[in-house]
């Protein structure tokens, strides 16, 4: 395994913000850490990157102890932080050369500019780059020394849909080059699109780990019916509907029905609402996603 994490712990003010988590990541895999803000994703990654010292546990990257052999590990990893501060008054070419000087070896500047679609911005000051261009530059800097493992901490946060998809293509290309990619995100679509496997994290713990499709299959339901009632009703009333496997009440007040017979569920739900005088506000149906896996495990949405 390229990455091995065992019983990792981090404590702040007497509280375990990372609570004895363990997982492994294979060479060439895109592994996602999915969870809401405050789940412990960034703290976990910073311990793996050598930026924070764990209070317990073990981390191995490419056969090296990431706690006791930090210098050896730093030569093997590239890091794109959640918030990357760059030198605004350097050009794109200059900042790539600067970062490359920190390592024993570096890739060709021209190769990096071409690979990250920054050739036309080589002489542009960093402060004049768009958000998407800055993110592409941040990842180019993370791979300037040709590392085996890339850490990407919420790489598409704040980007528009096109820039986000452009970055997805870059992440996929990193995998195609044989690199191991470890990324955190709170975008379920991003995790489903990119990741070979996903660990879902909440309150410092890993609550589920599998491929995106595998996690969704664990729901035993392929469809979701969602609506809001002015007055919550007992879950048993909906559990009896044809096809419903599970009923969840989200923190935002929505009632969520997991069903494997969508049409039959709707045909029973509408008459039930009419008979009881309920208004099904915001009624919608959709295919089950990782959002529903998280909701099933925690009663919360990823965005809460």
TrEMBL record:
<keyword id="KW-0547">Nucleotide-binding</keyword>
<dbReference type="InterPro" id="IPR050763">
    <property type="entry name" value="ABC_transporter_ATP-binding"/>
</dbReference>
<keyword id="KW-0472">Membrane</keyword>
<keyword id="KW-1278">Translocase</keyword>
<dbReference type="Pfam" id="PF00005">
    <property type="entry name" value="ABC_tran"/>
</dbReference>
<feature type="domain" description="ABC transporter">
    <location>
        <begin position="3"/>
        <end position="228"/>
    </location>
</feature>
<protein>
    <submittedName>
        <fullName>ABC-2 type transport system ATP-binding protein</fullName>
    </submittedName>
</protein>
<keyword id="KW-0813">Transport</keyword>
<dbReference type="GO" id="GO:0005886">
    <property type="term" value="C:plasma membrane"/>
</dbReference>
<dbReference type="GO" id="GO:0005524">
    <property type="term" value="F:ATP binding"/>
</dbReference>
<comment type="similarity">
    <text>Belongs to the ABC transporter superfamily.</text>
</comment>
<keyword id="KW-1003">Cell membrane</keyword>
<dbReference type="InterPro" id="IPR003439">
    <property type="entry name" value="ABC_transporter-like_ATP-bd"/>
</dbReference>
<dbReference type="InterPro" id="IPR003593">
    <property type="entry name" value="AAA+_ATPase"/>
</dbReference>
<keyword id="KW-0067">ATP-binding</keyword>
<dbReference type="InterPro" id="IPR027417">
    <property type="entry name" value="P-loop_NTPase"/>
</dbReference>
<dbReference type="GO" id="GO:0016887">
    <property type="term" value="F:ATP hydrolysis activity"/>
</dbReference>
<dbReference type="InterPro" id="IPR017871">
    <property type="entry name" value="ABC_transporter-like_CS"/>
</dbReference>
């Amino acid at each position: 395994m390229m990455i091995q994490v065992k019983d990792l712990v981090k404590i702040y003010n007497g509280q375990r913000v990372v609570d004895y988590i363990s997982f492994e990541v294979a060479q060439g895999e895109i592994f996602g850490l999915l969870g809401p803000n405050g789940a412990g994703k960034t703290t976990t990654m910073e311990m793996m990157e050598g930026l924070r010292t764990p209070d317990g546990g073990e981390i191995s990257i490419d056969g090296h102890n990431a706690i006791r052999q930090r210098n050896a590990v730093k030569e093997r990893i590239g890091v794109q932080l959640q918030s990357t501060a760059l030198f605004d008054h350097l050009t794109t070419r200059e900042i790539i050369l600067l970062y490359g000087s920190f390592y024993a070896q570096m890739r060709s500047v021209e190769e990096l500019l071409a690979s990250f679609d920054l050739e036309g911005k080589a002489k542009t000051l960093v402060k004049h780059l768009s958000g998407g261009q800055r993110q592409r530059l941040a990842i180019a800097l993370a791979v300037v020394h040709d590392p085996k493992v890339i850490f990407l901490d919420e790489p598409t946060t704040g980007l528009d849909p096109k820039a986000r998809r452009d970055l997805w293509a870059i992440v996929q290309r990193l995998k195609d080059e044989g690199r191991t990619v470890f990324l955190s995100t709170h975008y379920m679509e991003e995790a489903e699109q990119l990741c070979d496997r996903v660990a879902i994290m909440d309150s410092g713990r890993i609550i589920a780990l599998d491929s995106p499709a595998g996690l969704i299959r664990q729901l035993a339901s392929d469809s979701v019916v969602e609506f809001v009632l002015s007055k919550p009703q007992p879950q048993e009333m909906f559990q009896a509907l044809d096809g419903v496997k599970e009923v969840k009440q989200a923190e935002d007040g929505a009632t969520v029905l997991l069903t494997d017979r969508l049409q039959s569920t709707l045909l029973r739900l509408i008459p039930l609402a009419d008979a009881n005088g309920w208004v099904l506000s915001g009624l919608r149906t959709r295919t089950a996603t990782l959002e529903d896996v998280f909701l099933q495990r925690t009663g919360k949405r990823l965005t809460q």
